[in-house]
Design goal:
single chain, about 100 residues, mainly beta, 7-stranded mixed sheet, two-stranded antiparallel ribbon, about 0% helix
Protein backbone atom coordinates (compact mmCIF):
# COMPACT_ATOMS: atom_id res chain seq x y z
CA UNK A 1 0.00 0.00 0.00
CA UNK A 2 1.48 3.32 -1.06
CA UNK A 3 0.08 5.33 1.87
CA UNK A 4 -1.37 4.75 5.31
CA UNK A 5 -5.06 3.87 5.17
CA UNK A 6 -7.72 2.89 7.69
CA UNK A 7 -9.33 -0.52 7.23
CA UNK A 8 -13.09 -0.63 6.61
CA UNK A 9 -15.42 -3.31 5.33
CA UNK A 10 -17.08 -2.06 2.16
CA UNK A 11 -19.84 -4.62 2.79
CA UNK A 12 -20.88 -2.27 5.62
CA UNK A 13 -22.08 0.59 3.43
CA UNK A 14 -24.85 2.61 5.08
CA UNK A 15 -25.58 4.42 1.80
CA UNK A 16 -23.82 4.39 -1.55
CA UNK A 17 -21.18 6.81 -0.19
CA UNK A 18 -21.14 6.23 3.58
CA UNK A 19 -19.32 3.30 5.19
CA UNK A 20 -18.87 2.33 8.83
CA UNK A 21 -15.50 3.54 10.13
CA UNK A 22 -15.15 2.98 13.89
CA UNK A 23 -17.01 2.34 17.12
CA UNK A 24 -14.33 4.32 18.99
CA UNK A 25 -12.71 7.74 18.64
CA UNK A 26 -9.43 6.10 17.62
CA UNK A 27 -8.32 3.37 15.24
CA UNK A 28 -4.97 2.11 13.97
CA UNK A 29 -4.14 2.70 10.32
CA UNK A 30 -2.32 0.27 8.01
CA UNK A 31 1.05 1.47 9.31
CA UNK A 32 0.12 1.06 12.99
CA UNK A 33 -0.40 4.77 13.69
CA UNK A 34 -3.26 5.53 16.09
CA UNK A 35 -5.67 7.95 14.40
CA UNK A 36 -8.03 10.11 16.47
CA UNK A 37 -11.17 11.05 14.53
CA UNK A 38 -12.86 14.43 14.42
CA UNK A 39 -15.79 15.69 12.38
CA UNK A 40 -14.74 16.52 8.81
CA UNK A 41 -11.31 14.89 9.15
CA UNK A 42 -9.90 13.72 5.79
CA UNK A 43 -9.49 9.93 5.81
CA UNK A 44 -8.03 7.40 3.41
CA UNK A 45 -9.68 3.99 3.68
CA UNK A 46 -9.23 0.51 2.23
CA UNK A 47 -10.66 -2.98 2.20
CA UNK A 48 -8.75 -6.08 1.21
CA UNK A 49 -9.50 -7.47 -2.24
CA UNK A 50 -7.97 -9.82 -4.80
CA UNK A 51 -7.91 -9.28 -8.56
CA UNK A 52 -9.22 -11.83 -11.06
CA UNK A 53 -5.66 -13.13 -11.53
CA UNK A 54 -5.17 -13.74 -7.80
CA UNK A 55 -3.06 -10.67 -7.00
CA UNK A 56 -3.73 -8.36 -4.04
CA UNK A 57 -5.63 -5.33 -5.37
CA UNK A 58 -7.25 -3.58 -2.41
CA UNK A 59 -10.31 -1.41 -2.75
CA UNK A 60 -9.52 2.18 -1.70
CA UNK A 61 -11.34 5.47 -1.24
CA UNK A 62 -10.90 8.96 0.15
CA UNK A 63 -13.43 10.78 2.28
CA UNK A 64 -14.14 12.54 5.55
CA UNK A 65 -14.99 11.26 9.02
CA UNK A 66 -18.55 12.00 10.09
CA UNK A 67 -20.77 11.13 13.02
CA UNK A 68 -24.03 9.62 11.77
CA UNK A 69 -27.09 8.67 13.77
CA UNK A 70 -27.38 4.92 13.27
CA UNK A 71 -30.05 4.36 15.94
CA UNK A 72 -32.43 2.97 13.30
CA UNK A 73 -29.85 0.26 12.40
CA UNK A 74 -30.02 -2.32 15.23
CA UNK A 75 -26.70 -3.98 14.30
CA UNK A 76 -24.82 -0.68 13.98
CA UNK A 77 -26.05 1.36 16.96
CA UNK A 78 -22.63 1.01 18.61
CA UNK A 79 -20.82 2.67 15.67
CA UNK A 80 -19.60 6.18 16.44
CA UNK A 81 -17.83 7.18 13.20
CA UNK A 82 -18.53 6.73 9.50
CA UNK A 83 -16.65 7.78 6.41
CA UNK A 84 -18.42 9.84 3.78
CA UNK A 85 -16.67 8.79 0.56
CA UNK A 86 -15.82 11.55 -1.91
CA UNK A 87 -17.11 11.78 -5.49
CA UNK A 88 -14.30 9.56 -6.80
CA UNK A 89 -15.96 6.61 -5.09
CA UNK A 90 -14.42 3.24 -4.33
CA UNK A 91 -11.73 2.06 -6.73
CA UNK A 92 -9.10 -0.65 -6.91
CA UNK A 93 -5.64 0.36 -5.76
CA UNK A 94 -4.24 -0.65 -9.16
CA UNK A 95 -6.36 2.12 -10.73
CA UNK A 96 -4.25 4.69 -8.84
CA UNK A 97 -1.09 3.66 -10.66
Amino acid sequence: MSKARIYVDFNELVTDNIVLLSKNDTKADSQGNIITFYEGMPVSIYSEDISDNGQVDNLVAEGIAIKKDLSSYPNWQHIKWCCQIDSNGIIHESDLR
